[in-house]
Amino acid sequence: MATRGVWWFLGGALVAVAASVVTYDTTLGNVLYFVTYAALCAVAWRAVARTPAGPQRRLWALVAVAQTLWLTGDVIEIVYYYLSSVPPVGVADACWLAGYPLLAVALTRMAARRAPGRMRAAVLDGMTLAVAAGLASWQFLIQPMLGGPFSLAQTVVPALYPVADVVLLTAVLFISLSPGDRRAPTRLLLAAVSLYLCVDVAYNVLPMFLDYDLVARIGPLIMLGNALMIAACLHPDRAELTRPGQQVNVLHPSRVLFLGLAFLTAPTLSVMRSGLDSNTMVALGATALSTAFVLSRFTIAVREQEKAQAQMAYQARHDPLTGLANRAVLTAALDRGTPGPVAVLYLDLDGFKGVNDSHGHEAGDLVLTTVARRLSAAVRGTDLVVRLGGDEFVLLCPGLPETEAVGLAERIVGDVAQPIMFRGTALDVGASVGIAAYGADAPANDGDMLRTADHAMYEAKRQGRGRWVLAASA
């Protein structure tokens, strides 16, 4: 589905959910709720069917199954509501609870596929935060349910919902903290799961302060979470959720803050349980200060490591003399594919060996760096300038038609031919340029464009220095 269609779908879902909230607990509201929910499940399964076969489809199928189970639980409860009475716990709870682990598995597998081999930090940080959340859930949500005048099922089943929320929180933390692209599909997915968690927490907490009939009206918001998740599946860029991302794993300041809060959760809860006095407040303050010092030292160490890794990554992808991209970057760009129109210009310097022989390698380095600057100034911001090695350069120009590629080659021939001053002497070099230009019929294997431009460059060399040759006329 096109991006505009995704936003229209979300807009329609938002209107339907708002109407369900307004008409909640009426016959009209129940009909609208189930019609909307069933429609969303149908769209979810249709999106799964239109996803290419493979791991990506299986993960989205788990999401659709989870949503269908939640709908099934609602159907069972409404049948009880109209035919007899709703039991405190029952089959509906089994359906609702079963959806959480399925969704958690789907999210965890998405995180693993988008960051293969780079999940260790995300898992450790996610588990740290999950333990803190689990401790808070135990103290405020689970423990108060235990030991009451209820049956075993009435005690255990309600306590399973906070546990399911912690499991779901852990899975979404894996995606949030793992490296990878974070465009619209990822944001939609995170928004959906965040909404699920907020609704569940509100169901547990708000009845302590508000009338339950008012709190129950937030129930239809689950459907909005479903719509957000379906929109992520419908989005044309949904592959980013399961495709290895290119984003570098950088320590975000909020990550350090969340870890600090997680470390302080246990002592804070202990203080709240035992009561506040001067000694406990001093102990809590000292713990917070020590945590701040430790995390500060940790952050400094990580930043130094990130700088070293960034430097190594830059050196692996750039020519050390000119600062231009190297062959590895060009190969990766060609492997990704470039739809037409596209042009590749292959350059070889004329007279460069003579400069090296007559004036030395220092003069040769000056020529190479000057030519690199002139090439970078001649192209657009979307073009890629590469030094292959020696005195050979390549320009990859997506979206550049043949006529403009020829004009670019003419400018480059003129720019490179301008004298380069070295210790009072004008160094004279030129450029032979081969052009491979394609329209919509760009070859599927973009490596062919590079070879074609290379052959055209040799033809320009054969005809004489300071020339360009278009591959079609070679």
From TrEMBL:
<feature type="transmembrane region" description="Helical">
    <location>
        <begin position="7"/>
        <end position="24"/>
    </location>
</feature>
<feature type="transmembrane region" description="Helical">
    <location>
        <begin position="218"/>
        <end position="235"/>
    </location>
</feature>
<keyword id="KW-0548">Nucleotidyltransferase</keyword>
<feature type="transmembrane region" description="Helical">
    <location>
        <begin position="256"/>
        <end position="276"/>
    </location>
</feature>
<dbReference type="InterPro" id="IPR052163">
    <property type="entry name" value="DGC-Regulatory_Protein"/>
</dbReference>
<feature type="domain" description="GGDEF">
    <location>
        <begin position="340"/>
        <end position="473"/>
    </location>
</feature>
<keyword id="KW-1133">Transmembrane helix</keyword>
<feature type="transmembrane region" description="Helical">
    <location>
        <begin position="188"/>
        <end position="206"/>
    </location>
</feature>
<feature type="transmembrane region" description="Helical">
    <location>
        <begin position="30"/>
        <end position="48"/>
    </location>
</feature>
<feature type="transmembrane region" description="Helical">
    <location>
        <begin position="282"/>
        <end position="302"/>
    </location>
</feature>
<dbReference type="Pfam" id="PF00990">
    <property type="entry name" value="GGDEF"/>
</dbReference>
<feature type="transmembrane region" description="Helical">
    <location>
        <begin position="119"/>
        <end position="139"/>
    </location>
</feature>
<feature type="transmembrane region" description="Helical">
    <location>
        <begin position="89"/>
        <end position="107"/>
    </location>
</feature>
<feature type="transmembrane region" description="Helical">
    <location>
        <begin position="60"/>
        <end position="83"/>
    </location>
</feature>
<dbReference type="InterPro" id="IPR000160">
    <property type="entry name" value="GGDEF_dom"/>
</dbReference>
<keyword id="KW-0472">Membrane</keyword>
<keyword id="KW-0808">Transferase</keyword>
<dbReference type="GO" id="GO:0052621">
    <property type="term" value="F:diguanylate cyclase activity"/>
</dbReference>
<feature type="transmembrane region" description="Helical">
    <location>
        <begin position="159"/>
        <end position="176"/>
    </location>
</feature>
<keyword id="KW-0812">Transmembrane</keyword>
<dbReference type="InterPro" id="IPR043128">
    <property type="entry name" value="Rev_trsase/Diguanyl_cyclase"/>
</dbReference>
<protein>
    <submittedName>
        <fullName>GGDEF domain-containing protein</fullName>
        <ecNumber>2.7.7.65</ecNumber>
    </submittedName>
</protein>
<dbReference type="InterPro" id="IPR029787">
    <property type="entry name" value="Nucleotide_cyclase"/>
</dbReference>
